[in-house]
Amino acid sequence: MPVPFFHVDAFADQPFAGNPAAVCLLPGPRDPGWMQKLASEMNLSETAFVEPRDDGFGLRWFTPTVEVDLCGHATLASAHVLWKEGRLKSSEPARFHTRSGLLTVKQSGDLIEMDFPARPATPCPEPKGLCELLGLAASMVAVNGMDYLVVTEEEERLRQARPDFARLAQFPGRGIILTSPSRDRAFDFVSRFFAPASGIDEDPVTGSAHCCLGPYWAARLGKSDLVGFQASARGGVVRVGVRGDRVLLAGRAVLVIRGELCE
């Protein structure tokens, strides 16, 4: 039976911006090995697999090389597809059962808002050679069990960073979040995200990284509602609301391709 397949640009308000994700609507559980092969075939930063359950949907995320525990943009894309395809009414929230627990997503005006776990980082010694590899001086290095958070005060250095991804892949964890204050008053902070060890040299817009960025910048700036800009080549805006041990991530999505996987 053909499997409905969708290509969605998440954290974008027009096609070919933000972060592209593949979304597959499955009739039921599938073998993880098949999912990983398909994600490799898609060759996007994330491919999401959605299956119906009595009280919502199961959701799993795969990069071209590994399954991950948390992904923001492919969750946003999955909810967008469910509403677009009539699998959910526009007034209904999407409930996703994931490796990071229950994630709920709802439409809020012209935005899609996701309720995610906060993943604050704890300051730690700089792993040897990390900042040299990024080509900048860090005011803080921290870790949250998933990623390293590297803070620099120089946005220009952040934007100019061109790390050797083969060497960067040798550092433990999922990836490296690089962040700085924003020179543009439209944004509270800017960031980039590198995850070569997970099969993604640079992710265009990383929702899950904002589960760490939100708590850091909220504490630093003394405000709970923030706007972040991820300064990748495609770029994307993520609105962040810090609510205790939860983080609300909001953005837009655009459906670019609809098709079927032929098995």
Characterization of the model:
The structure is a single chain. The chain has 6 helices and 18 strands. The longest helix has 12 residues, at 73-84. The chain has an 18-stranded mixed beta sheet that branches. The protein starts with a strand and ends with a strand. A hairpin with an 8-residue loop joins strand 1 (3-10) and strand 2 (19-25). It has helices at residues 32-42, 73-84, 130-134, 155-160, 165-168, 210-221; strands spanning 3-10, 19-25, 46-53, 56-62, 67-68, 94-98, 101-108, 111-117, 122-123, 140-143, 147-151, 175-181, 189-195, 200-203, 225-230, 236-243, 246-251, 253-261. The model has no long low-confidence stretch (mean pLDDT 97). With 263 residues, it is α+β, with helices and mostly antiparallel strands. It is globular and about 55 Å long. The relative contact order is 0.19. The chain folds into 2 domains: 3-107 and 252-261, Roll (Diaminopimelate Epimerase, Chain A, domain 1); 122-244, Diaminopimelate Epimerase, Chain A, domain 1 (Roll), CATH 3.10.310.10.
Mean pLDDT, as a whole number? 97
Note the total helix count: 6
Distance N to C terminus: 7 Å
What is the beta-strand fraction? 35-45%
- Count of distinct strands: 18
CATH architecture classification of the largest domain = Roll
CATH topology name of the largest domain, in short, is Diaminopimelate Epimerase, Chain A, domain 1
CATH class of the largest domain: Alpha Beta
Query: If you compute it from the alpha carbons, what radius of gyration comes out, rounded to the nearest whole angstrom?
Result: 18 Å
Helix and strand content put the structural class at alpha+beta
What is the string of SSEs from the N terminus onward? EEHEEEHEEEEHEEHHEEEHEEEE
Low-confidence stretches: none
Quaternary structure classification: single chain
Can you tell me the CATH superfamily of the largest domain?
Answer: Diaminopimelate Epimerase, Chain A, domain 1
